[in-house]
Design brief:
Blueprint lengths: L2 H24 L4 H22 L5 H19 L3 H4 L20 H15 L6 H12 L4 H7 L4 H17 L12 H20 L10 H14 L8 H14 L25 H13 L8 H11 L9 H15 L3 H15 L1 H11 L5 H11 L4 H14 L3 H14 L1
Helix pairs in contact: 1-2, 1-3, 1-5, 2-3, 5-6, 6-8, 7-8, 9-10, 9-11, 10-11, 11-12, 11-13, 12-13, 13-14, 14-15, 15-16, 15-17, 16-17, 17-18, 18-19
Length: 409
């Protein structure tokens, strides 16, 4: 890695670790102090390394400076004697002796506990994702604003509101007990699922794939498997889904950033290692009697990674979609089911099913209808594609749709 890239890389990987450990130490009510101390650590690194060069072990240097800054803060702010955890309720003179644990295990534990604190139903899903990106992923405010197609002031206000709600409710930074683990785990998985999808199916009109968001969601989901209280079948199913979807990331766009549809993708670009990892976690998810939406979506994604076309492929995918819609209905899943129906039973029955959905404000609906009418009624297909063009805000989608119109003319 080139020297100019070292500090940004370390900020992405180590800021979140330092912040999580300090948040756990100080409590959720002092989350801004943890963020400030972590930011000050990297500011000092930028100034010092710029003058003296990079230390032999940059990560260890950061951890040492972060510990010293935390001890100095505690030493000079005796108010913490009354406001934070029992281990800090000692005389101000001994604050500097406090052991600040930045071991691998405590970092992992702290990040996992922060995940449950942040993914709390008390705050909106947008706030959960925003805080996750900031605290657990080390994203800057500008990056989060870009991800959500808004300005940084809006994101700042959103993050502030979320922190205030968690502070007012005195949310503890801990993994829930057995009585509430299932409900709270569902909230965490939902947040990670949406975070992954924001990367894989980016809402940014100028970006098809935000690989960094998807990979962060996968990393956080993997943390859940490292604790027996959270290593549940649905967690493994979600990881399998993420692996299968991520395996095709490099094949989804061309060199110009334009979308390559599934049936046109170069299968040699599919990542076999991620596919194998997905199969491993899908097998792990089979324990127990519960089938979640993640199990079904992971199974569907698995069949999309098969490089051959077994006779039962699309019929199996169709049945999986039928079961998925019974568990949790969504318009996108219904559209995808209709495509699977066309592959399994032909376009005519799929057209009849698609038109029943009547999703007239969704560009994907008209894109699918255009695909289904192609070769049957090209005039109708072009009309559908033009309506999709009118509704979409994605330049990448426009390129694909215009290409489809040209094929019909």
């Amino acid at each position: 890695m080139q020297n100019q890239n070292i500090l940004p890389h370390l900020f992405r990987t180590e800021y979140r670790k330092i912040t999580s450990v300090l948040c756990k130490l100080f409590g959720i009510e002092h989350i801004e102090i943890a963020e400030d101390l972590a930011s000050d650590t990297f500011l000092q690194a930028s100034e010092t390394w710029g003058l003296k060069g990079f230390p032999e072990n940059p990560t260890a240097w950061l951890y040492t400076v972060a510990k010293n800054k935390a001890r100095d803060y505690l030493k000079h702010h005796a108010v913490f004697q009354q406001k934070i955890s029992e281990q800090l309720k000692q005389s101000a003179d001994t604050f500097y002796e406090l052991e600040i644990d930045l071991s691998d295990q405590n970092i992992t534990d702290s990040q996992l506990q922060m995940m449950f604190a942040i993914c709390n139903p008390l705050i909106s899903i947008e706030e959960q994702i925003g805080l996750s990106l900031r605290i657990l992923c080390g994203f800057g405010v500008n990056e989060i604003a870009n991800a959500f197609l808004t300005n940084k002031e809006t994101i700042k206000k959103r993050l502030f509101r979320a922190k205030e709600k968690l502070r007012s409710a005195q949310i503890k930074i801990e993994v829930p007990g057995e009585n509430e683990i299932e409900e709270r785990l569902d909230a965490v998985l939902r947040t990670l699922y949406l975070l992954f999808n924001e990367g894989y199916y980016s809402s940014n009109p100028n970006t098809v794939v935000r690989k960094d968001l998807s990979l962060e969601a996968l990393r956080l989901a993997h943390l859940l498997t490292q604790n027996e209280k959270t290593d549940h079948p649905q967690v493994n199913a979600l990881i399998a889904l993420m692996c299968f979807q991520s395996s095709r990331l490099d094949a989804r766009t061309n060199d110009s950033g334009e979308i390559i549809l599934y049936h046109n993708q170069n299968k040699e670009l599919w990542n076999d290692e991620l596919i194998s990892t997905g199969e491993y976690y899908l097998n792990r998810s089979s324990k127990g009697n519960v089938i979640s939406k993640y199990h079904l979506e992971a199974s569907i994604a698995f069949f999309h990674t098969t490089k051959t076309e077994p006779a039962h492929k699309w019929e199996t995918i169709l049945q999986l979609y039928n079961q998925l819609l019974r568990i949790e209905y969504s318009p996108i899943a219904a559209l995808n089911r209709t495509y699977a129906l066309s592959k399994a039973n032909g376009k005519l029955p799929a057209i009849a099913e698609a038109e029943k959905l009547n999703l007239t404000t969704n560009h994907l609906y008209y894109t699918l209808l255009g695909e289904l009418y192609s070769g049957i009624d090209n005039t109708k297909a072009i009309s559908c594609y033009k309506e999709a063009l009118r509704l979409t805000s994605s330049e990448a989608d426009r390129v694909v749709i215009n290409g489809k119109i040209a094929e019909c003319e």
